[in-house]
Design a protein that fits this description.
The chain has helices spanning 19-24, 26-34, 55-64, 73-78, 92-102, 108-126, 137-154, 162-175, 192-212, 223-232, 238-269, 271-284, 299-311, 343-347, 363-366, 388-403; strands at 39-44, 47-52, 69-70, 134-136, 318-322, 326-328, 331-333, 338-341, 406-412, 430-436. It has 437 residues and is an alpha+beta fold. The structure holds protoporphyrin IX containing FE.
């Protein structure tokens, strides 16, 4: 039965509504909104947005009734001019076709092949560090994530060109930053953020042109070869090949780099857990770096990855728009309603997690009784992250390879806060001192 009234709205400020709190401290704001209920209505300048933070409601939206929701215009606007023909922005039958075309690039066999190269790339990266080196941890993990991805995606060595990819991701994050000065201007006024965005897109386009040149369908065993084969069969246009490549380059490095940096922050604070990972490495790894086949046996490392993604989910939330009127939690939301599912809130909810703020990788070996959708770093349902298995494998193998070679002593410059954008990026400078094993 549906109720006539609307969900509760947490208090906000005149004009800017709930936007101000989010732009100041996004995770604190999301946590305080959830105190008002599993479904709340938020007011932002010019629009309202429903935040959904109960696992059963999340399951309804992302899984059971997924066909009554799609991605919203905000997600399409974010990627406009760069991923218009990619799976990330497509809806309906077009999205199904693009998703089907990408699928063969992420089968278990393919992931197994990428796995061995992931550890080789990580070993090469870490072997450049000397005892006592001081690293910008965020920058280092981003460069590593781009190199890891480039190898599996296009079989290329992008050393020295990581910044082109990183600058485009920065421009996307800036576009969605709630604090950006242009946020309240009409779309046609070019802001510095827009100009930076266009410049970085041009450079990324040139890089992608180079990657596409001289490639033939069937050549290589990377993601690009799958895209080109789909083009040969007539399943993908060349614009779709190009935009999906760009989409994968961006979606595929931002979150993994964020997760690797979080894992090192946590391990640096929890020496006992790092010691366990080193012991696991010594017990499991035969050669001078892990092999893809050893992935399954790296149980503790896999649990550290899981726990890192619980405490520090790299994305701020999953966005959806209702395509019909829907009833949620007894309230009727009209077609066109915008919804948002914040992983941070679900992952730290005391109803489902014992001692939720504690970094406790062993919880994954102990208690498993919790609702399925209390943990969704990669979202859920048919539209969940296509790179989820790739990322789990990459993060585990890269972390194990690093742990086998170095320990990092991490210092965060001040209490951790996050950028109010599509990605939960720490705002502080984070330095790491290298100790070689
Ligand atoms: C820690 C790593 C990662 C996290 C936490 C993550 C998280 C997510 C989330 C939350 C979504 C939104 C899903 C939805 O709307 O329901 C998504 C979508 C996507 N991700 Fe990931 N991701 C990660 C790594 C990757 C990697 C490595 C790749 C590619 C190699 C990738 C490619 C994509 C693509 C293409 C989409 C759009 C899928 C679609 O709309 O059908 N991601 N990811």
């Amino acid at each position: 039965m549906s109720r006539a009234d609307s969900p509760p709205t947490p208090p906000g400020l005149p004009l800017v509504g709930n936007g101000w709190a989010f732009s100041r401290r996004p995770v604190d704001a999301m946590e305080s909104w959830a105190d008002h209920g599993d479904l709340v209505e938020l007011r932002f300048p010019g629009q309202s947005l429903y935040m959904v933070s109960g696992p059963d409601l999340v399951e309804q939206i992302l899984v059971d009734q997924h066909d009554r929701f799609t991605i919203g215009p905000r997600q399409q606007a974010t990627f406009e001019g760069i991923e218009d023909h990619a799976v990330t922005t497509a809806t309906g039958d077009r999205w199904k076709r693009l998703r089907r075309a990408l699928h063969p690039a992420f089968t278990p066999d393919r992931l197994q092949q990428y796995g061995d190269r992931m550890t080789a790339v990580t070993a090469r990266f870490v072997d450049d560090w000397a005892e006592g080196d001081r690293l910008d941890l965020t920058a280092a993990m981003r460069a590593l994530a781009v190199q890891l991805l480039a190898d599996s995606l296009v079989g290329a060595d992008l050393r020295g060109e990581e910044d082109v990819v990183i600058a485009a991701a920065d421009a996307l994050v800036a576009r969605t930053n709630f604090r950006r000065p242009g946020q309240l201007l009409p779309d046609w006024v070019p802001t510095p953020t827009d100009r930076r965005f266009r410049r970085s897109v041009t450079e990324l386009d040139e890089l992608v042109d180079g990657l596409l040149a001289d490639r033939e369908a069937g050549a290589g065993e990377d993601v690009l070869s799958v895209l080109l084969e789909a083009h040969e069969r007539g399943d993908l246009s060349m614009a779709e090949v190009r935009h999906n490549l760009v989409g994968l380059l961006l979606a595929g490095h931002e979150s993994p780099s964020n997760a690797l940096a979080s894992a090192w922050r946590l391990l640096s604070d929890h020496g006992d857990v790092l010691d366990e990972l080193v012991a696991e490495y010594d017990a499991v790894v035969d050669g001078d770096r892990p092999t893809a086949a050893e992935f399954e046996a790296l149980t503790r490392t896999r649990n550290v990855v899981r726990e890192t993604l619980r405490l520090y989910p790299p994305t701020t939330g999953v966005n959806r728009m209702a395509t019909t009127d829907v009833t949620l939690d007894g309230y009727t939301l009209s077609a066109g309603s915008q919804l948002f599912v914040p992983q941070w809130v679900l992952h730290r909810d005391e109803r489902f997690w014992t001692d939720p703020e504690r970094f406790d990788p062993d919880r994954w070996a102990r208690d498993t009784t919790r609702p399925d959708h209390a943990y969704i770093p990669f979202s859920a349902g048919p539209r969940a992250c296509i790179g989820a298995d790739f990322a789990r494998r990459e993060l585990t193998l890269a972390l194990a390879t690093m742990v086998g070679r170095v320990a990092l002593d991490v210092e965060v410059d001040g209490p951790l806060t996050f950028t109010p954008s599509l990605s939960l990026r720490p705002e502080q400078d984070i330095t790491a001192t290298v100790h070689r094993r």
